[in-house]
Amino acid sequence: MRVVVLASGRGSNFAALAEAQRRGELPISLCALLSDKRTAPALLLAENAGVAAIAIAPREFPDRASFDRALFARVAEFEPDLVVLAGYMRVIDPHVIAPWRGKVINIHPSLLPKYPGLHTHARALAAGDAAHGASVHFVTAELDGGPVIAQVELPVHAGDTPESLAARLLHLEHRLLVASVGLIAHARVKLGARSVEFDGRELDAPLRLQADGMLA
Ligand code: GRF
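That is the input. Now the predicted structure with 5-O-phosphono-beta-D-ribofuranosylamine docked in place:
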């Protein structure tokens, strides 16, 4: 399965995919990493992994839609089967994303539908939530609103800060993303007409990451 990753920053989720692929645990070919930030550390990680690393600057385009058209034209050149948004911090124009239905996934640090958007850890803490987590979902025009494939949950500890929560969650995010991409690569998960399908059946709740790293 040919995979293109979009990332705006650190790139630890990209690195998790690259590492799993290198270990032979993920039957994917990482074709390219594209970023809207020239200085994104993710670009260096991609270069070091031998993956094409491309930066495209939004300010060189008159508006969001023309940037997104140019970005996805570059993405299309790599003929990906799957596009992974891994810390990609821009909303994608609905007209640009529409033809990619079922081919783009995003990892989001909350138990969606809770806390779409930014500052998810702080919002979970402010709400007094006992549990927090992350979700991998198919991308639709609605921000962080597409059908959820899988989630991982972790308990909130007394004294947690947004930073401590984010750090504990990040390790689990990596496992969640690798496991989700694995199920798509093995054609066990896809976006059906109405919802996510797992082994040919419509999911009525997201898959959950188990202690053994599998999704069930
Ligand atoms: C992750 O927390 C991801 O869930 C969110 O942005 C962060 C990206 O981290 N969308 P990294 O760049 O993959 O290290």
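The radius of gyration is 17 Å.
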